[in-house]
Design brief:
- It contains 4 helices and 5 strands.
- By secondary structure, it is of the alpha+beta class.
- It has a single domain, classed as Double Stranded RNA Binding Domain.
């Protein structure tokens, strides 16, 4: 069980990891050892996530979520497999925890009298600037 929040806990069997060869520095070790982690989590099929959390997760995950609702996280920051596994899992937990926070509802507010006045004065100034660009009329 992986605890994300007080209400959300993921089962270990919902997360699938595969190990691939990492790119980047590491000498000949890169060519021999599969240290990079590709973590997959089926968010759409997970019973731990509500519909509201899943909808926010789709927005936050962006390209990391497939059309089927599977989150794919690649981790190859470190040279060891265990550090990359922990990094990928931490990133997944942080992503789900961020999606679990409901957005603050927007309260509609009215513009103040001062802000209305500033807006209208700005429009008047701009109008005068544009009027000054016009061709002089023939009666001048």
């Amino acid at each position: 069980m992986i605890r994300v929040t007080d209400r959300i806990a993921l089962n270990d069997d919902e997360i699938h990891e595969s190990f691939v060869r990492a790119s980047g520095p590491g000498g000949q070790n890169v060519n021999k050892v599969s240290t990079a982690v590709e973590l997959r989590f089926d968010a759409a099929g997970s019973p731990a996530l509500s519909d509201h959390v899943l909808a926010r997760l789709r927005t936050l995950a962006g390209r990391r979520m497939t059309q089927d609702g599977v989150i794919v996280i690649d981790a190859q920051r470190f040279r060891s497999r265990e550090q990359n596994r922990a990094d990928a899992l931490d990133r997944l937990v942080a992503l789900i925890a961020q999606a679990a926070i409901p957005p603050k509802p927007r309260r509609p507010t009215r513009p103040t009298l001062a802000s209305k006045t500033r807006r209208l004065e700005g429009k008047t100034v701009r109008s005068r600037v544009k009027a000054a660009r016009a061709r002089p009329s023939s009666d001048d």
